[in-house]
Specification:
By secondary structure, the chain is α/β, with parallel strands linked by helices. Helix content is 37%, strand content 22%. The protein is built from 9 helices and 13 strands. The chain has a 9-stranded mixed β-sheet, sandwiched between helices. A 4-stranded mixed β-sheet has the order 3-2-6-7. Helix 8 runs antiparallel to helix 9. The longest helix is centred in the last third of the chain and has 15 residues. The structure holds alpha-D-ribofuranose. The site of alpha-D-ribofuranose (RIB) has 16 residues, from strand 2, helix 1 and helix 7.
């Protein structure tokens, strides 16, 4: 059991601007929202924060702009003990932002405006990974340039780290990055898009990931863990029979945004500590389920981690 594994996250940082409303507006319609929260977000930062809250040593590689959103985001990461030496401040750029609408059912709609995130360069990734030192796990998502994702996963593989790709938001051009990941962790929408590319439209039943999952795993030779909202998650590994279904506890949903990131951060932490993959996935499902009962992305993580991290340490 590695009690304080080192996880390197190469990914995005955003300022989340979340509005809660009963329903989303039609084109041309103005609605009155119920509440608003300016919070810390970005899939990369969210995953880094959950991994750190769950007890991992975490290094973040990212880009922010030369504005207060950027300096606040770095201060937030640092306050959680995350190594931010790999976070570059690009003074000419704006920090990425994410306007988010959460409807009366707790379902979110997110727009990202990547700003500085899209200016990350591969030489920054190289320098930051050199400085961060050996990692047990390297995690990437798709909110930064794909060349940087490729470099991070390649470097992770070279070092002998476990590589995790959360292919979110899914991009068709990311198809050839999948081969660099030991674990691919999509949600069901991203899984359908990925299956469409790998197997063709006619071979995929949208919304039924369990059907095509074994063929995807056989095609990629990688382990795939699909997050499936209130249904929990689906796990399938090369060389193992069938799909393991991991049910989620029944919870009332206030805001599902960031739950997928909580899942990835918790899964990475458990896996890096030496937990068997099924146990790590079960811990991740429990962790993500607890976050949806609270508003905000990172703002909803601390309580969940406080309840689950001690159990992870004992296992
Ligand atoms: O997954 C949720 C995240 O997606 C938000 O924090 C937002 O910033 C976008 O990156």
């Amino acid at each position: 059991m590695n009690e304080r594994p080192h996880i390197v996250v190469v990914g995005s940082v955003m300022a989340d601007m979340t509005a809660w409303l009963d329903r989303v507006p039609e084109a041309g319609e103005t609605l009155v929202g119920r509440s608003f929260l300016l919070g810390f977000g970005g899939k990369g930062a969210n995953q880094a924060v959950m991994a750190a809250l769950m007890g991992a040593r975490v290094s973040m590689v990212a880009c922010v702009g030369g504005d207060s959103f950027g300096s606040d985001a770095i201060a937030n990461l640092s306050s959680l003990g995350i190594d931010t030496h790999g976070v570059s401040v690009l003074s000419e750029a704006a920090t990425g932002v994410a306007p988010i609408w959460v409807d009366g059912n707790g379902q979110n709609r997110i727009v990202i405006v990547p700003g500085a995130n899209s200016l990350m360069r591969t030489d920054q990734v190289d320098a930051a990974l050199d400085a961060a030192g050996a990692a047990d796990v390297v995690i990437c998502q798709l909110e930064i340039p794909l060349a940087c994702v490729r470099r991070a996963l390649e470097r992770g593989r070279e070092q002998g780290a476990v590589t995790i790709l959360n292919p979110a938001p899914f991009l068709d051009e990311a198809g050839d990055l999948l081969a660099l990941a030991d674990w691919i962790v999509p949600n069901e929408i991203e899984f359908d898009a990925l299956a469409h590319i790998l197997l063709g439209a006619d071979a995929v039943a949208p919304g039924s990931p369990a059907e095509s999952l074994p063929r995807i795993v056989a095609t990629l030779g990688a382990s795939v863990l699909v997050t499936h909202g209130e249904h929990g998650a689906l796990l399938c590994r090369p060389g193992e029979d069938g799909v393991q279904k991991i049910p989620a506890p029944s919870v009332s949903v206030v805001d599902s945004s960031g739950a997928g990131d909580a899942f990835v951060g918790a899964f990475a932490r458990a896996l890096a500590s030496g937990a068997p993959p099924l146990d790590a996935a079960q811990a991740a499902v429990r962790c993500a389920s607890l976050t949806v009962g609270l508003p905000g992305t990172q703002a909803s993580f601390a309580q969940s981690a406080a309840r689950l991290a001690p159990a992870l340490d004992e296992s």
